[in-house]
Amino acid sequence: MSKLTDRIQHAWNAFMNKDPTEEIRKPYYSEPSTYMRPDRVVLRYGHEKSIVTAIWNRIAIDVAAVKMEEVILDKNNRYVETVRSGLTSCLTLSANIDQTGRDFIRDLVISMFDEGVVAVIPVDTTINPERSDGYDINTIRVGQIMEWKPSAVKVKLYNDKTGKKEELWFDKKMVAIIQNPLYYVMNEPNSTLQRLIRKLNLLDSIDEQSASGKIDLIIQVPYTIRNKTRKAEAEERRKDIEMQLTGSKYGIAYTDGSERITQLNRPIDNNMMSQVEYLTNMLYNQLGISQGIFDGTATEEQKLDYHNRTLEPILSAITVEFTRKFLSSNARTRGHSVIFMNDPFKLVPVTQIAEIADKFTRNEILSSNELRAIIGYKPIDDQRADELRNKNLNASNEEIEAMTTRDEKEPGEENIEEEEVEISG
Predict the structure, then answer these.
(1) How far is the CA of 343 from the CAs of 57, 82, 372, in angstroms?
(2) How many Å apart are CA 340 and CA 307, to the nearest integer?
(3) Maximum CA pair distance of the chain?
């Protein structure tokens, strides 16, 4: 009975057990509210057409799926380790109170495609960026650039404290300004994408006119209508036929035998659809995209071409600008950098995993535990599973003796032998 009483006293539900005075005291009840998400990306008019949105969304999702982190590189620009910093957390876990790391990257790419150039603002930092460049980023957001100056930009940025978008001036040195690498294909006034958008708008307007429900008839009366009396008679005749069509159950009307009716809304053959298909194929070729990318039937060569020609320029533009603006010169000197790491095993079917695993372990590229982590298995607690050794070859006698000696030694014996060698020396 005590457990039941404890549950009744401490249970809470979002729609029940509310104290009205507590609701008044909660601070978020005084905040402004909206019925739509205020920080959502709103595309420009005409850019939300189906084919355009599908292309942008596909590329943005694929870019966001690539891992981006702040890392340490050696003198040969090789990956050493990941830095557990606020910037890495923003790119991989939580960018701000509204967006995860993937949502932030997707927002960044779609906004960049729509505007041509966007600004990435570090909203919350550990140190004032205007006083020192040795700061770490806690939250980050994408903003729209409204005005340009030689050393500053005015950015329209969402404020999660007020729930509104505000225009603020920022120094260029603390703002990552990322331009669309495909700007001349997407954003130029006469680019392929803009021409396709205009053609789609015209095609939609033609479809709306065809489906407007108008009959578009011309009635030829058996007399001239040059004077006002004849015009009034013709107008009366037009209204009579219109009332017959609208008042009839099946839209049937009758006319005089001397009258002649011509219908104008017959389907007119135009080359608008062929132009749209031509521009769509041209856009796919210029972006390095094939139809198989969208329907999931792309070959390995098509996927590789899509990554090298489309995704890699976008990823490089983002990571290089983040490294240039969000990492201090001291950090870059010590090897810190923001890089992207594409997982090549995402494109590999399951039937080829065994063959690849054999080649990677045989040629001492990956250890057994590293391969287990790639395919989703936890590492095993065996020292040999972390060794870069060809397990298809038998170990030599010296290696077997060394491993046996190492396993049989008690902890601390090795240190004692080293001390004895030093004393005897």
Answers:
(1) 20, 16, 15
(2) 12
(3) 133
Q: Which structural domain, as residue segments, surrounds residue 65? A: 50-189+313-329
Residues 136, 75 share a domain: yes
At how many degrees (to 10) do helices 101-115 and 50-64 cross?
140
Tell me the C-alpha distance between 288 and 299, whole Å: 13
Which parts of the chain register pLDDT below 50? 8, 10-11, 13-15, 17-21, 24, 268, 410, 416-425
Residues 65 and 104 occupy one common structural domain: yes
SS (H, E, C) 75-144: CCCCEEEECCCHHHHHHHCECCCCCEHHHHHHHHHHHHHHHCEEEEEEEEECCCCCCCCCCCEEEEEEEE
CA distance 158 to 123: 10
Judge whether 425 lies within some domain.
Answer: no
CA torsion angle 109 110 111 114 (round to 10): 120
Q: Is residue 388 part of a domain?
A: yes
Residue 336 lies in a domain: no
pTM for this entry: 0.74
First vs last C-alpha separation in the chain: 77
Strands 260-263 and 137-148, how do they pair? unpaired
Question: How many Å apart are CA 162 and CA 38, to the nearest integer?
Answer: 11
Report the pLDDT value the prediction gives residue 120, as an integer from 0 to 100: 96
3-class SS at 177? strand
How many structural domains comprise the chain?
A: 2
Dihedral sign, CA of 399, 400, 404, 407?
A: positive
